[in-house]
Amino acid sequence: MKLKNIFYLLCTSIIFGCVSKSGHTLLFVGSFTDGKPDAGIHVYAINTDTGETTLLHEEKNTINPSYLKIGNHGHFLYSVLESQLPTHGKVAAISVDSLSGKLKLLNMQDSGGRNPAHLSLHPSGRYLVNSNYTDAGISVFNINSDGSLGPHHQLLEFKDSSVVKGRQDAAHLHSTNFSPDGQFLFGQDLGADKIRAFKVIDTDAGPLRLRPSKEISVKPGSGPRHFTFHPNGTFGYGISELSGKVTAYQYSDGDLVFLEDYPSYATNQEIYRAADIHISPDGKFLYTSNRGPKEDSIGIFSIDQNSGKLTLVGHEPTYGKHPRNFCLDPSGQYLLVANQFSDNIVLFKRDRETGLLTKLSEEIQMDNPSSLQMYKYRVE
């Protein structure tokens, strides 16, 4: 082995605190850059024994890479670009060097509208779906064998509204989620108070296409924002931004049947800004984030494995302002929160038995963090 390769491997091992036989974990952070080219994507190594983080890479000259999605066993990263601007946004494909954490832009494609806000991957790993918020729509991309993106081959656009003036005067597609079996896609339309369901058409004759299936109405003024499926595939949970509620559903064959609503906030608010929602890897606990204006917190709920219903465990402050996004590490040991307005990412140790969170002293300082993705790489 060449001397420089030995030196590189030695340095890499030091960075990761000596990579264990089980592998190492990387944290990818997307952010808002005030609409100007800047270092908008950061890559960190995280020591899952201590919670300590090490900055490995900053991707410069990116404009508002406000939402990220890791794909294909961690080899590629997908990012929206130029979100919250008056022109069409873009979707970028980026390769990941899993040892060094360095990123390399593969290509960019037009998102099909203004303000791309969310990305989802088909379980096959061959297709990427983008949600445009301002020009409400869903664009579908083929992922090439090298990880790059083809131009969107389907664009579905929506015109609709609901009852909250100024927020629901038009349709706003905030996110999409594929069903666990990949047969359906569900789009959260914050502006129309609807979950839009689509049948996935994937044949050998051509790329994946979406066929409108049904519209699932939510309570007027809710503003559905994000959604997650339970690991067992039989339950789904949505977070509504404008009502501050979590909604539990029974899922079966492309249909969501309402079970119950739950307050995401600890106290009643005049204005709600509920944001994100995730389930622990073991399926026992559900977490939500609440972005002020008077409460910045993580809601913690236990999940009844038989009925899918939730029981409130408690709330944990996020030690920052406007927790737009959060994530759990693949092992379920940690929960990380991106506080956009206070420019910090806070790490919590998670009790796997109770679901409760304990703040660690480790904290990442960076401007306007908005999206977190984590991936554990195995040693081959």
From TrEMBL:
Q: Which domain of life, per UniProt?
A: Bacteria
Pfam families the record matches: Lactonase
Under the heading InterPro entries, the entry gives:
Cycloisomerase_2 (IPR050282), Haem_d1_sf (IPR011048), Lactonase_7-beta_prop (IPR019405), WD40/YVTN_repeat-like_dom_sf (IPR015943)
Protein's GO biological process: glucose metabolic process
Q: What are the GO MF terms of this UniProt record?
A: 6-phosphogluconolactonase activity
Annotated keywords:
Carbohydrate metabolism, Glucose metabolism
- Gene3D superfamilies for the chain: YVTN repeat-like/Quinoprotein amine dehydrogenase (2.130.10.10)
* PROSITE patterns to which the protein is assigned, alphabetical: PROKAR_LIPOPROTEIN
Kindly give the PANTHER family that the UniProt entry links to this protein.
6-PHOSPHOGLUCONOLACTONASE, 6-PHOSPHOGLUCONOLACTONASE-RELATED
- Belongs to which family? Belongs to the cycloisomerase 2 family.
Kindly provide the name given to this protein in its UniProt entry.
6-phosphogluconolactonase
* Organism of this sequence: Croceitalea dokdonensis DOKDO 023
